[in-house]
Amino acid sequence: MKNKTTKPERRFHNWRLIVLFGAFLVILINPFLNFYFHINFVQGWYQSLGIGKLWFVSPLEGLESILVSKLVYMPLLIGMVIPVLIAIFLGRVFCAWACPISFLSELSDSAIKFLKGRKRRKDFFTLSKRLLWFALMGELLLTMILGAPIFVFLSPPGLVGREIMMAVFFKTLAVEGVIVLLVLLLNLVTRRFYCRYLCPLGALLAFIGSKRRLSLVINTAECKECGLCDMACPLGLKPSIGEGRSPYCWNCGECVDSCQQDAIKFQWKEITDH
Ligand code: SF4
Ligand code: SF4
User: CB under 6 Å to ligand 2: residues?
Assistant: First the structure.
């Protein structure tokens, strides 16, 4: 019988770090392959990534391009299909499992833990989760008013890939890269501050995935209301009261790992379930 009082292994956490690291390696190594070895099988970064004949376009950058050009360019739409389908079925998983900002945030978290030896960092203040929707609406509105795809140029996840590309191809860095540093610094105030409240891409993926098939269920008979899962959530959600089913949840699994009673699990909702 399973001993429910031992410290749980951090299964999802460890897998997520491996996947995040792998996703980061793609955008880190690829410019070197392109530039020094002329191996162009993979091109670009997570705003627009070509793998062989497949082309993936970030849904927000794709939407911005359509709004600005007022043209629906078919290859662009096709490039958005797979990321949109992933979000429809799995929600905001790009954020937790692939985004370079998440990877760098995990890295800086580990550095802080190592230096300060603190187990869990506090959020110094929190805001309304709904801010995320305003970030998306504001960004799209500004794009239309200015007639320029702002997120294409200034998205922190995109900037990580662009800065690596600039460093390899042009031996320089763009000044906008400072935005990435600011995003990481904000983590010191509130865990994943930018991802919680400000990222329009995270908001769009959350919106697309609001009726996602994969989400969390809590077994109330097993739950001891200890609050460990709520403390573990990097987005400040309360999975103990069902916020793991909200659009904001990015299915990272930290709350599942933290529960010593195994009371929280991922569940695949069938199309017929409501
Ligand atoms: S919210 Fe934005 S920056 Fe944060 S992980 Fe998602 S895409 Fe990346
Ligand atoms: S509720 Fe759980 S799975 Fe969702 S973001 Fe929070 S810790 Fe991750």
Answer: 216, 232-233, 235, 237, 239, 243-244, 249-255
Whole-structure pTM value:
0.93
Which alpha helices (H) appear in the chain, and where do they start and end?
A: 11-37, 59-69, 74-90, 93-97, 100-116, 131-146, 150-154, 156-170, 178-189, 193, 200-208, 228-232, 254-258
Minimum CA distance residue for ligand 1 atom 6: 95
Read off the pLDDT of residues 34-69 as tens digits, 9 standing for 90 and up. Answer: 999 999 999 999 899 999 989 999 999 999 999 999
- Give the whole-angstrom CA distance, residue 156 versus residue 54: 24
Q: What is the SS3 assignment for 236?
A: coil
Question: Domain extents for the chain?
Answer: 11-111+127-211, 213-274
Considering only the top CATH level, what class is 213-274? alpha beta
